[in-house]
User: What shape does this take?
Amino acid sequence: MRFFKLRRFITQWTNYEYWPWLFFYLPAIPVHLWYALRSGYMFYNTAVNPGIDKGGLFGESKIDILNNFSDDYKPKTYNHKAENSVIETLEILKNRNFEIPIIIKPNVGERGLMVVKANSFEEIETILKSNSVDYIIQEFIDYPHEFGVLYARIPDCEHGKVLSITLKGFLTVTGDGNRTIEELLLENKRAWFQIDRLRNEKPEILKTILAKDKKYVVEHIGNHCRGTEFINGNYLITENLHKVFDQIAKQFDGFYLGRFDLKAKSFEEFQKGQTIKIFELNGVTSEPGHIYDKNHSLMKAYRDIFNVMAEAYKISRINIKNGVKPFSTKFVVNLLLQHFKNK
Assistant: This one.
């Protein structure tokens, strides 16, 4: 057991995919300070998305953001507030024909924290009663492809552009007819960091023996912290795709830069803007997720990060000129302290 833990630790610190987040973004600090000096505001980037609460820096309401988009582009969604009756919420879900399974996540949250795929209404009831927070309840979109699409548009410009596409490779095993799912996972380095959590959350599933060549998706939540592999999908960017996201993004007044998390039935339909279901939009702190592709070099990752920062600076400069006031340093520091106090 000690050897296994040591092997996990060594892998974490030598595998490119698991380099600490801070190591990626440490060189971005002097770049941020340079833009801050040029703009005259330490947190100039809080002026990038004036339509998002707190500028999309962190702690924004996911449901308030989603409400800006037409139902054509969204899964069926319901906002359960902490003060709401759980029984009434369950009745509403049934009356609105929500089908099992269902995705439940906090209205304010990040990095896949407390996101759950519920497989029964009894499980939904347990989750809603376990924490007194506002939840977003969404139908589970069983499309085969999940994307993270980072988009930017300069204010007053007619057209924007897709800066990054991240494909999600969910944590999956293939059966051999002999070994359990847990035994198969132990052969997957990415799964090593999920084993303890999965033993607590899905003990019975881990004991299952899959038929030979049968694939099983162990984790459906497309987050790096949940074992999902991020893959560079920038080859999917086309002129038509820029237009697709122009059309989507312009539904949201005051939004100029952020990452759409969505699903689509196929790459072709995604590029045409068809069968797209957006379940989340993140603001100015959005990452170009393709940089976490194991084949993406560190220098290219820095280049891509700096390109996104340059877009944010250009947008903020125009918004500030148009009267948008960035947050003060004192306000952001207090926001940070409050944000991490609630963790």
